[in-house]
Here is the input.
Amino acid sequence: MDLTAIEAADRLIAEGHPNEDRGDFAAALALYRKAAEAAPGYARAHMNVGNALRQLERLDDAIAAHRRAVSCDPRYAQARFNLGSLLAERRDFGSAESELLEATRLDPSMVEPLLLLADLYESLGRFDDAEAQFRRAIAITPDHAGAMLNFGVFCLRHGRMDDALLWLKRARATDPALDDADSAILFAMNFLADLDVDSIALEHLHAGQAISRRAGPPITNWSNTPEPDRRLHIAYVSGDYTHHPVSLFLRPVLENHDRSRFEVFCYSNHATMHPAARKLRERADHWRNISGL
Here is the structure.
């Protein structure tokens, strides 16, 4: 392949990346297409074209571009993985599996194809194969918090709560900033009967502190006119005013608000009025349906 053409293509790809980073995928695509025209046999250029097309939700075109990348360089593991991911999104699971397995064969250090294979196998009911991929990913990269988190959630879905808690806590210990771990840990603890109340309370406290840190500094300046004697308006916004734990947990909260001090609003992001929602509506001062907004 002409090295001058490849160098020109690489310059165009580098020029396109800042556009992609700021979300201007159309501008990035135009530059990547120029790169592919400059070096038609250059797999990297076609893969970048495919990546931009995927961001533009043109999946069929993205698949075609990645197939072109693979045809230019059949040993390009990243292109194989990207193609497998797109095919899985299209629910072409057989072809997706082939591409992902080839990606792992070409680059045994890649974890992402293994995690995607695990998801694919689980969706096909091949649970032992799914677990094998999770364990292989963790063996390859023992500090991959995302792999541990995904495996923990997999165990959670399959009722293996002790295993779920083990892997979720390992994930959090590896990456304390992992946002999803705390919620999954609290969920798993609901199904374990041998936990003491202090350990349960500490986990909830830990999760609350993590949420507080992510929320940033508290608001201290308020634009409203201070009227300390007026009723405070409180709004609860949810898409789960249905047969859902949110409805069950919220009912006593609404019942026990001091109506002399608080005026309660419920904003429902669910299109239909579920029987559970009617019970909540009776306990709120105001009900707003915002499902169309």
Remarks:
- The CA atoms of residues 77 and 103 lie 5 Å apart.
- The chain is about 65% helix and 5% strand.
- The chain has a mean pLDDT of 92.
- The two ends are 54 Å apart (CA to CA).
